[in-house]
Fold these 3 entries.
Entry 1:
Amino acid sequence: MNKKLWKEAIRRALIGMPIGLAIGTVITIINSLNVGDGNYYPVVPALIQDCGSEMNAVLIQALCNLLYGAVVGGSTVVYYTDWSLAKMSIVHLIAISLSVLPTAYFMHWMKHTFVGFLVYFGVFLLVYAILWLISYRRARRSVEALNRKVQTGI
């Protein structure tokens, strides 16, 4: 990657950090609402046990959410390379996976079994595929609109 792309990756990573933290917080609120007992659960109980206290667990989860957001944000620069769409998508998927899966395992967002990993990874791939298809269709429509303008001379 060239220097300009690295700068853009860093810029996007810095933007992604607070987004990752916000998404992580929203997820804890949704999970707490799903429990339905009127309490807020900032982390899963197993993480509290691993970290020794709820505060340590919350801090570690927040740092992981910041890191996760940075990787997700920064890795989008692969779509500004001159690689094929397949290569860009595979590199992006690998980068995201290398961030998401260890974080999800460590944070106890998945069961610590092979089946738990497969289920989590399957859901992750499904969400990734849906978001990829939405982005692809949006980009394709933009290109088609530009082509129409070029053809009509507008």
Entry 2:
Amino acid sequence: MKVVSLGDLVLDVVVRVEADVARGADTPARITLSPGGQGANVAAWVAALGASSRWIGKRATDAQGRLAAEALERLGVELSGPVEAAGNGVVVSLVDAAGERSMFPDRGIATTLEPDELRPAWLLCDHLHVSGYALLAEPVVRAAVRAIDIARMGGARVSVDLSSWSAIRDAGPDRFRALVESLEPDVVFANEDEDEIFGGPLPRSTWILKRGARGCRFGDEERAALDVPEVVDTTGAGDALAAGWIVGGPDLALEAAARCVGRMGSMP
């Protein structure tokens, strides 16, 4: 199975605080650096779960871009897309004692991917997964729409992750819903906040509702989350779940999400 994921590749700085934040002073923390970004996360988990994986996006060869790209390649992902000299994105994730995270993204040049920078050969696949972040900025949204058209011409199924309730709010929920509906995705992934602001399921798409520790609804099927010894970091759990579902359905989706929350960082 060949899966292509379109979205951001960033340097992910995860900060897990180990005490109450001392404003104006020091707070003990565990800090990790790893590749991240929703598109790259899904690609990494697809590769870890045994499918052929390609990531598409715009990245840079600056220090943060090299670190992220080299790490993603080591995970078995093929990287495709234009490369610039500077401006790769960085995301800082602040993780509390319960494993919940707040994200501070600087997307850099990821949003500047143009439709004419795509190559049709990159989109020869069985499944194309599109990060909602790629649908929330210009000009990358036009590149994402073009990618969907090319992949569909080759017979690929298409999924979209809604990505961020706050970004949907800022873009305008009605406008964003109209765009996603016009793309006619086969599958949509959403968490509960995204589901609410988006206005609920699309009529002709399989709707996968991510509910964190309370499990997931796969269409009409409710499934409980798997038990894990400790929730260390929820960063990327939804991306792992999406990759698992694409590669192997609900069982693998829940297994991948449980594996993700038991470790620091968003990738396997």
Entry 3:
Amino acid sequence: MSAVSETIAREYFEMLGYLVCQPRKYSVPGRQKKASEEVDLVVLNTAIRKQKLPGVMVWSTEDLASVARAVIAVRGWHTERFYASTFEQAPDILRFVEADSLKFAAQILGTDDMAKVLCLPRLPAGGELKDQTIALLKEKGIDGVISFRTMLGELVSRVETQKNYEKSDLLQIIRLMKNYDLLRDPQLELFGKQRRKRT
């Protein structure tokens, strides 16, 4: 599943104009990963001149408009939300922000001025649990979180059914699903959600 999750993140950043480096193409079974192996992606957008981090923790596509460089960790456990307790029980999730990992990413980018971004399925919906989780991520050095919903939504909205995406299996699958009306572009809801009529 990690390969699929990294492919989604890669396609998302590439579609936004980032140059994407995936430094590790192999899996690491049976031993602790080295610091350099904790980095999933390193991204650079040469069109953005000045790096400025958004003022929020959970980023949308629009928030990336001022992020020129980033080191990315992709955590694609697509069955649950990520709570503060998740990160405390599995501290390896955040090892990509340790000094050795960041030093490795800085060698690729040529600078240590980079955002530290975590791509994951979802955070708690709201309230105290979400606040605790965001506070923990900030404390650990994470600059932003991008959800898979955000990434997939952007990919779905940008894929055109008239184009043949033969060089990308993911984009081609999205195109085919849209072509056969299995996926639809997000639409504006002019009148809000209508309540279901009770029978």
